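Quick one, T. Sequence first:
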Amino acid sequence: MEALFRKFLPKLQRTSTKFVRDFIHQIDWERNRLIGIKGARGAGKTTLVLQYLKQTALPTGQSLYVSLDDLYFSAYRLYDLGEAFVRTGGQLLVVDEVHRYANWSQEIKNLYDDFPELRIVFTGSSIMHLERSKGDLSRRAVMYHLHGLSFREFLQIQQIASWPAVSLPDLLNDHTQVALDLTQTIKPLAHWNDYLKYGYYPYFLENKDVYAQKLTETIQLSLELDLPAVYGISYASVDKLKQLLVVLAESVPMKPNISKLSETLNTSRALVVEYMHYLEELGVLMLLHRDSFGITRLQKPEKVYLSHPNLQYALHQSRPDIGTLRESFFLSQVQPLHKVEYTEKGDFKLDRKVTVEVGGANKTRQQLAGVENAYVAADGLEVGYGDKIPLWMFGMLY
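Structure tokens:
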């Protein structure tokens, strides 16, 4: 355990709290003894929990951060570490990368049950499912999902602008005044294209020039390491997933022809749909259904998108289509907080109540004729009016 403290303390000291995502305040850290945070690789889970540890400022020895991909856990059990930690006065144990440790859920459950004085925070892949884990954590753990940076956070992390989040009702009802207030300080459209290219994951700060390469490598690691660790799928299946991703990246947004895709991959239709769900859980695809309530895992999606615009630049062989980028941006900003479904009229249905058509500055309501509670999300506008809302403003939702 001493070796783990030697690694943890310098890491905590190096952790900056100059920019802390609002997400940290959405977690009820104090009232929940067992908290889980999942998200795609690179979303910032490790930074978030280290920032929390730094803010709590517990006396040395009472908090500990460990990553379960550390070589330490090839020789020692997590449960034994937790037991020893509690006996030496430990109160808060943060366990990172849990999906990389075979028996993580059972041992965390046992720690939770055996040591009521211990608080545990664990993080893992976005494909992590408590209901499929060996230990029954679904009744014990409170789960949170950390998404990539919104456009608002992209501006904030670079100290370009510090704007409060705007709720969807306020955005729909009062977007003109909100835009007038926000644009007094900066011109958001001057930064929007940068966000589309490299702004979704915080590691763009390390080197913008190699961001696309790093994003591609991150997806590859998720496919080769995370999926086999969680689902136990074979490497042959991983190869099929890579082939599917290559095909979809060049075609989205698309209404998928499952039969044709199954022929291309030389696999069954059911597996093609299952593979799509894997890619959605990894944060690579967004699958839209006509009715997303009560859908089964084997149900064919109505339309398929890449889940955020950075993926268009990283995975597309040619210059991405501007219409695709707009729709991918809209989805990435809205989906973390609202249910998004496929609709025949317009592009997206939000929370079964609001219909949105996404387009350029000259987009009209023609495709929304006869649709109530419908809006146009228009690119190229700094300030909108009526039911025509600047597309960039949907990046203010979180």
